[in-house]
Design a protein that fits this description.
Layout lengths: L1 H18 L13 H11 L5 H15 L1 E2 L8 H4 L1 H7 L1 E2 L1 H14 L4 E10 L4 H4 L6 E12 L2 E5 L5 H4 L27 E10 L4 H9 L7 H5 L12
Parallel strand pairs: 1-2
Antiparallel strand pairs: 3-4, 3-6, 4-5
Helix pairs in contact: 2-6, 3-6, 5-6
């Protein structure tokens, strides 16, 4: 009898732990009518959760255009329904949308962050930061077939063009940036994997980004005044 109670206790604790990864939050607003409608539109006809996850991934990857040059200091900047309506976003915004759509489709989902090093940093982005480390890269983690699977839907197919190898997702294996370009050049290196989160840690994101932003980029990205008095950006 004690063994049975112990077993059910373990199961109950696991269910409670997983429950938070299905709940809507102010930012991951999985209960928003537009999020629910889009999740049903994309997954309602599919039978399995991996199939649903794949459909959601490719929608976010390719129908939400990647844009790294957006503010990221208020909760509404990250809100999933805002990104869905805007149809553009940077990595965290797209990860939040994928997380919200997944939760709306009853797939446990959470956010994960990493420090990445871009060895081919675009000139415009290089004008915003010092060095080539991006400390606030975000992606989704989806719980499928009993395990957490990484799903990075940041770069849309148009952004990849002829140089970048697109990230593909099969619902089973981790889908992260490819380390090299199509022509074999070193591109993206994962320097550090940060923790997983059930919601966006806005204050931490601001802290990570502030450490690498050039002074003139503080206002457009973090809403801070430029201490140098110069606001020009490339």
């Amino acid at each position: 009898m004690n063994r049975m109670y112990g077993f059910f206790g373990v199961v109950w604790r696991r269910l409670l732990k997983m429950r938070k990864y299905l709940q809507a939050t102010e930012i991951i607003d999985a209960g928003h009518p537009a999020i629910k409608k889009k999740a049903e539109e994309l997954t309602g006809h599919l039978a399995t959760y991996p199939e649903k996850a794949i459909a959601l991934f490719y929608f976010v990857r390719d129908q939400i255009r990647y844009n790294a040059f957006m503010p990221r200091f208020l909760p509404e900047h990250f809100k999933a329904s805002n990104t869905l309506a805007r149809k553009t976003g940077f990595c965290i915004q797209k990860a939040v949308l994928l997380t919200a759509l997944s939760r709306a489709a009853h797939i446990p989902a959470r956010l994960r962050f990493a420090v990445i090093r871009n060895h081919l940093l675009p000139e415009k982005l290089a004008g915003f930061i010092t060095g080539n480390d991006l400390p606030d890269h975000g992606f989704a983690e989806l719980h499928l077939d009993g395990r957490w699977v990484k799903a990075n839907a940041a770069f849309d197919i148009g952004t990849c063009k002829d140089l970048i190898i697109p990230v593909e997702f099969d619902g089973k294996n981790d889908a992260l940036f490819n380390s090299h370009t199509r022509d074999g050049r070193l591109h993206i290196e994962y320097v550090l994997f940060r923790d997983s989160y059930d919601d966006v840690p806005v204050d931490e994101v601001i802290e990570w980004v502030a450490a690498v932003l050039r002074p003139e980029a503080m206002m457009p990205i973090l809403g801070y005044p430029d201490p140098s008095g110069c606001s020009s950006l490339p």
